[in-house]
Description:
Layout: E1 7-10, H1 17-31, E2 35-40, H2 46-59, E3 63-69, H3 72-82, E4 86-89, E5 98-104, H4 113-125, E6 137-139, H5 142-153, E7 162-166, H6 176-183, E8 186-190, H7 211-216, E9 222-226, E10 233-236, H8 245-259, E11 264-267, H9 273-280, E12 285-288, H10 292-301, E13 306-308, E14 314-315, H11 325-337, H12 343-348, E15 355-361, H13 364-381, E16 385-386, E17 391-395, E18 398-404, E19 410-417, H14 420-439
Parallel strand pairs: 2-3, 2-4, 3-6, 7-8, 7-9, 11-12, 11-13
Antiparallel strand pairs: 1-5, 4-5, 9-10, 13-14, 15-19, 16-17, 17-18, 18-19
Helix pairs in contact: 1-2, 1-4, 3-5, 5-6, 8-11, 13-14
Amino acid sequence: MFRAYDIRGIYGSDLTENVMEAVGNAFASLFVKDSVVVGMDGRISSPQLRKAFITGVLKAGKDVTDVGLVPRSACLFAAWKSGKPSAYITASHLPPEWNGVKFAHGNGVEFFEEDNNKIRDAVLSGKAVEAQEKGSVNTLDAIESYKKYILSRMPEVERPLRVVLDCGNGTAGLAAPDIFRAMGFEVKTLFSEVDGRFPNRPSEISESALQKLSEEMKNADMGIAYDGDADRMSLMDEKGRILGPETSAYIILGMLAVHEKGPIVANVECLKIMDEVAEKYKRRLYRIRVGNSFMVHEVNARKACFGVERSGHFCLPSVMPMDDGIAASAYAAAALSAKGRKLSEIVDELPHYPFVRHKVECPDEKKFAVINRLKEKLSGKYQRVNTIDGVRVDLDYGWVLIRASNTEPVIRLSAEADNKKNLKELANEFLEALKNEIKSS
């Protein structure tokens, strides 16, 4: 259950109330000075897991500010405003039987692997911390202050676009529709009622899950879909096409780059279009490790104007210095309203390159050693090599990334090229090198 960036498990088997109480106790003992902000998503198991987590925190003698059922970003916002760490009960985009918890520091940056490992080790030790005086709980309505703050940071809307919001029965329904309406958009909502069973579509954002949203686009200018805790979002044009995160970045930067200074941050998985977007707006592009905790950290450290993750996380520090799917989507709609053009027309003017991803099985005990050997060999063979997360090789006609999964016994190979012929040759060449390295390990 203890992953690189969070804790996740199937409720009732892996993840129980006893385990969550131990997690809360360990977290509070190690990382909470006096008080922590705690929130949750809408999963059926979240209330009882939140209660157990809070029990563990109180046992350690630390106080809790309970913001209850809120989007992830509203929990982060409340913690950021008070300078406190936060814990949010969620399994994000996973199926309803899953649950877990995500931690963040007071600045909104999620815990890195070493922090989560400290919590893991404390839980596995079986030694709970019991203070002489237990902590106390106070509640806070974080939704209204969050909505007001986001609205105060949004640019003026120039055209009242027709926007369809697919909240997916997640927590986006608690804030996104109100924000968009207050901005002046004509809003239609899909599945805005919070229901932790996700009866209408999966919490994960995918093309197959967004058929209803696609159908609604006949009478709309923009569609937006959120995952279960609303920290990720995807845009859809009026033709029913889902936009990749890089294309969404282009839409956002069309306005953001006019008003904000600083470079752009994107992880090593992001497509070639990010290089062209950065060049268009005359910004330096920093390629970073995969993981929204790294993205948010690098955005703040480099004083960047924007950050994007291939998984659909966005950070606009001039709005919120952390990733926020609701804020990013609202800004994207405002940017489109200023264009005077259809979203599909903007999408079609962008270059699109063929892309492929392969998954190759490799035992957990071997996969990182395989990557390290490939780093050494490929760095000696090619000029433009990035080894910050796996190994990425950039060529004049395309690029390839070979990266070990943090959660599965697999190594993934991603490749993109300027045409299908070059893509096939590029992918086959590096796929063969990867398989040979696994065989010889």
